Amino acid sequence: MGIATGIKTALAVLTVTASSWAAADDEALQEVLAGEHRAESSARDEYRHPGETLAFFGIEPDMTVVEIWPGGGWYTEILAPYLRDEGVFYAAHFNPDSEVEYFKRSRDNYGEKLAANPELYDATKVSVFNPPDEYDIAPAGSADMVLTFRNAHNWYMRGGGEEKLLSAFSAFYRALKPGGILGLVDHRLPENRDDEEQDTSGYIKQSTVISAAEKAGFVLAAESEVNANPKDKAKYQHGVWTLPPSLRGGDKNRDKYMGIGESDRMTLKFVKPEQD
After folding, report:
1. What residue numbers bound the domain in which 179 lies?
2. Residues 40-80 pLDDT 10s
3. Number of independent structural domains in the chain
4. Within 10 Å of residue 74's Cβ, how many Cβ atoms?
5. Is residue 241 part of a domain?
6. Residues 6+ apart with CB under 8 A from 215
7. Among 52, 80, 189, 228, which is disulfide-ready with 203 (CB 3.0 to 4.6 Å)?
8. Which stretches of the chain are DSSP H helices?
9. Considering the entire predicted model, what is its pTM?
10. How far is 96 from 119, CA to CA, in rounded Å?
11. Angle formed by the axes of helices 162-175 and 206-215, nearest 10°
């Protein structure tokens, strides 16, 4: 922690706006973002800003990148083809033999998605991540970048709070090379709210995330507001799932929640120090 703290001070944590990280000069990324295979998924780009987000994290097409819990593959549709020719892409998904039906179904659906489009996804290496028991997401010290989108709140909520969050970040730390990047996006709970709201709301405090990452050995290198949404007050009957795309309340106040849009999100870039 002493070394990490010193490095953090030297880096003087940067706060970056969306306009500072346009991805327009990455032709390969722009080509993937505009691909026909994203015709449906691209409707969410106005909320998730994938080009700007990935550029902020510093992704390059020859990297070894691990995506944690890719779910239905929204970001996989970008990462897999982008990294296919020059890089290596690991998708650390659920255990296909999980006793949790949701996990098993999600993993099966993801596998079917990959198999249906080999021209895009045939190079994807699927691994298993289930903290704190299964964490071999990629060979130790092999990854240039680990990415996780809207997952940290799940690890916190699944029991164990910050301890389970720490086990996840420790797994990412092991997989990364010295100097490697951890890029994280998640639903942000305002710092002035009760910590207990993190247990069920789907939102998590930025300070909670940073604390766990630093305990795992990471240094916070930069913050971005590219995925911020000041309209989101983070207090709803059904938690973050009240907002799109979940809209768990159905048609009740649908127009109101569509007007708010997707959640307010932190976007954080951490670094594994060159020397522990």
Report:
1. 2-271
2. 999 999 999 999 999 999 999 999 999 999 999 999 999 99
3. 1
4. 17
5. yes
6. 1, 166, 169
7. 189
8. 2-11, 27-33, 45-48, 50-57, 76-83, 101-116, 118-121, 152-157, 162-175, 206-215, 254-260
9. 0.91
10. 23
11. 50
The verdict on residue 212 lying in a domain is yes
d(CA 60, CA 27): 11
111, two tokens: 């596998």
181 bridge partner residues: 145, 271
Does some domain include residue 276? no
Neighbours of 112 (CB within 10 A): 9
Task: Give dist(CA 42, CA 59) in Å, integer.
Answer: 19
Q: At 148, which helix (H) or strand (E)? A: strand 143-149
Residue recorded with tokens 């106005």: 46
* pLDDT for position 74: 98
Tens-place pLDDT, residues 162-187: 888 999 999 999 999 999 999 999 99
How does pLDDT run across 30-43, given as a tens digit for each residue? Answer: 999 999 999 999 99
